[in-house]
Design brief:
The protein has 13 helices and 27 strands.
Length: 705
């Protein structure tokens, strides 16, 4: 049943965390009432004596237990306020929305850059002079860093509550079961446990992560400590991980086992190139044992089946997020040794990812995901056989981690895991190239954000206006870091001293003059008081929030211009008639400081500050736009896949190229379950590969949310 598109109030609050500033809430006048279900477009529900039949609160993140609990409490409070009672605008709109504002749906977090709170009211079922009220709440806080990566785009689709910052308010324990199937590893199950204790910011590690997966033919267990830091400097985000891993994976000729310990550091730069690009880099050191039980296959002369090893890895990349596009390119270099005395092998990995999405109809999103990977192995001495390239339907990554994934093996979904590996010189390839394309279209979906609001032009203008204002606040933050601004602030104590001295001199002159020039004396004293108040406020604040008080002292703020106001009232109006040498001398000292402060302000590079602010907000604005206009709570999508992979050296039917067309279905239910099921064909299959393979992956919800 259609909803009456009446917005009594659209209330938007934008808090820019980095600048410790929060914009005032903006109330929009009632918009046009669409005539649905008997609701007249010109109705005044209060004057026409409508009664509230029922009320409810809706929040797209109500599948989270904490949000669901708050929503339930809030619904009970509003119901007691309006249900069964005559409709009153003051009660149904003002008082009810005040209750929503008091209830905090977001937690405080040092990791976010911007908070947005949207609250609005719609009316349903205006029949028989009775109506239903629906209060919509949408709160989000979005971190600036990582928002331009393919990994963060994946998070938007599969766990939008994390992108919106809602997961921050939940339990410190996160447990996500997982599962999957392929012909090599069989049906597998496991999970990912992360514990993030509160109040441990003083420790170098903020979370403990344990992950495991197992089946009748494979096992994988890892445990790690993770720390991280966000910064306003060029290095926007950095993280470090200590990790232990034990695993065993099958091929059709035996298993690979490993036990390793590693230390890792990764970092992300601030956005640059007008906010379109971010850089990433890192390094990893690891060591342990690699073992294999391959049988009935030859092993290359420069490969060993079982050995201890030590390796170091460096990697770098660049990522970009544009409208409807995410692009990332990464390069990794591994230097390894079986003896610890030199470099026994070198491994090069190049990985390029691109994702394009576009809504074909309301929230019916068409997605195209492509992945190109190339690898080369150089072996001047020896290499463990498991460090050669083994391909198939299972992804291997250059290093562990959720925030950055670099694929390190040829992936072709038409061949079971680790069964595409027989090259001319034995088990495992020394080079590979692979390309994977996945296309999906959400034919059935429920939008995360109400469609009637996301399509509303007035709401879009309001939100864009608030983002523009938030950008100005961020610009003020960067202005506060300008050396000329800092010099200006250092002059404020002298300005305050001159204002105090002028106040004292003027008071003495007023006493001496009796009742003469009473109006002018009063205006001068008032101007001094206003300016002094602004100076004191500026000295007590800092960063971006200080900027407004500083600007209020100068002509840049035409509505205030407090220092010039003192000069006009005390010099031009009062002392032009009083002609007091003491007042003139005090004004001259203040005027000198005013000119110096103004000169410092004029030398601030406002253009540079604006460019930095625009770059900071670029990913935030695009992420907000995606959450509101494209992301679904749940969807069902048909899937088409096409893979091609080549391994070498190739000769006499060994190695070479394989193709893998296929299709399937993808079901996504935000924070509950995400799975893809399909089948891909291998028309040029070799012995041990099979004519095709089923591919299936499963991710389930965080059980503690």
């Amino acid at each position: 049943m259609k909803r009456a598109a009446l917005y009594f109030v659209q209330s938007v609050a934008v808090c820019f965390v980095a600048s410790t500033a929060c914009l005032a809430r903006t109330d929009v006048a009632p918009g046009k009432i669409s005539a649905f279900n008997g609701c007249s477009p010109t109705a005044n529900f209060e004057n026409e004596n409508y009664v509230v039949r029922s009320s409810r609160v809706e929040d797209p993140f109500a599948f989270l237990w904490l949000v669901r609990r708050k929503k339930s409490d809030l619904s009970a409070k509003i119901s007691s306020l309006v249900d069964g009672k005559p409709f009153r605008y003051k009660v149904a709109v003002e008082q009810a929305l005040q209750l929503i504002e008091v209830e905090r749906f977001l937690s405080d977090s040092a990791d976010v850059r911007i908070q947005v709170s949207l609250e609005f009211l719609t009316v349903e079922h205006c029949e028989g002079f009775r109506l239903d009220l629906v209060y919509h709440v949408y709160s989000t806080q979005i971190p600036q860093v990582l928002s331009g990566t393919p990994e963060s785009r994946s998070t938007e689709k599969r766990a939008p509550q994390q992108t919106a910052g809602q997961a921050e308010a939940g339990s410190p324990i996160h447990l996500k079961p997982s599962g999957g199937y392929n012909a090599s590893e069989r049906a597998s199950g496991g999970g990912h446990l992360e514990v993030q204790p509160r109040g441990v910011d003083w420790l170098p590690f903020r979370s403990l992560t344990v992950e495991g997966q197992g089946s009748s033919t494979m096992r994988f267990v890892s445990a790690g400590l993770k720390g991280g830091k966000d910064s306003q400097a060029w290095l926007a985000h950095s993280e470090w991980i200590l990790n232990y891993e034990s695993s065993s994976f099958p091929t059709n000729a035996g298993n690979f086992s490993r036990g390793t310990f590693s230390g890792q550091f990764s970092a992300v730069t601030k956005a640059f190139a007008n906010g379109n690009l971010t850089g990433r880099f890192g390094f990893l050191i690891e060591g342990g044992n690699l073992q294999s039980t391959l049988q009935n296959v030859s092993i290359a002369p420069n490969a060993v089946p079982n050995t201890g090893y030590f390796s170091s890895k460096v990697y770098a990349g660049i990522s970009s997020r544009l409208a409807h596009n995410v692009f990332a390119s990464s390069y990794g270099l591994e230097l390894g040794s079986t003896s610890g005395a030199g470099i026994d092998w070198r491994k090069h990995i190049g990985d390029v990812q691109h994702e394009f999405w576009y809504p074909v109809g309301d929230h019916h999103v068409l997605e195209l995901e492509s992945h190109f990977t190339v690898g080369a192995l150089q072996v001047p001495v020896l290499v463990p056989v498991s460090e050669r390239f083994f391909g198939g339907g299972h992804e291997e990554f250059f290093f562990s981690g959720d925030s950055w994934k670099i694929r390190a093996n040829p992936v072709i979904r038409a061949i079971p895991a680790n069964r595409f590996y027989l090259a001319a010189d034995g088990a495992g390839a020394e080079s590979f190239v692979s390309y994977n394309l996945t296309a999906a279209w959400a034919v059935w979906r429920k939008p995360l954000f109400p469609s009637d609001l996301s399509r509303d032009a007035g709401f879009t203008r309001l939100l864009n206006g608030q983002i523009t204002t938030a950008t100005s606040i961020e610009q003020n933050y960067y202005v506060s870091k300008d050396p000329h601004y800092k010099r200006l602030v250092s002059r404020l104590p002298a300005v305050q001293k001159d204002l105090d001295e002028l106040k004292t001199v003027v008071q003495s002159a007023e006493t001496a003059s009796g009742d003469q020039f009473a109006v002018e004396f009063k205006a001068c004293a008032r101007a001094i008081g206003f300016a002094n108040s602004r100076v004191k406020s500026a000295l007590c604040s800092k960063d971006g929030s200080q900027y407004g008080d500083v600007a209020a002292l100068l002509p840049v703020d035409e509505k205030e211009d407090r220092l010039r106001g003192v000069l006009r009232a005390c010099r031009d109006s009062l002392n032009s008639q009083l002609k007091s040498p003491e007042v003139a001398a005090s004004i001259a000292s203040l005027d000198s400081e005013f000119q110096s402060v103004q000169a410092d302000f004029q030398q601030i590079d406002q253009g540079l500050a604006n460019r930095k602010a625009t770059q900071d907000m670029a990913f935030v604005h695009r992420t907000l736009d995606t959450l509101i206009k494209e992301v679904n709570i749940y969807s069902i999508s048909p899937v088409v896949v096409f893979d091609v992979a080549h391994i070498g050296p190739a000769t006499s039917g060994l190695g070479g190229t394989r193709y893998g067309p296929g299709g399937g279905i993808r079901f996504g239910l935000a924070s509950t379950v995400n799975f893809t099921l399909g089948y891909a064909w291998n028309p040029q299959h070799r012995p041990g590969e099979g004519p095709g393979a089923i591919f299936f992956s499963l991710e389930t919800r965080d059980l503690f949310h």
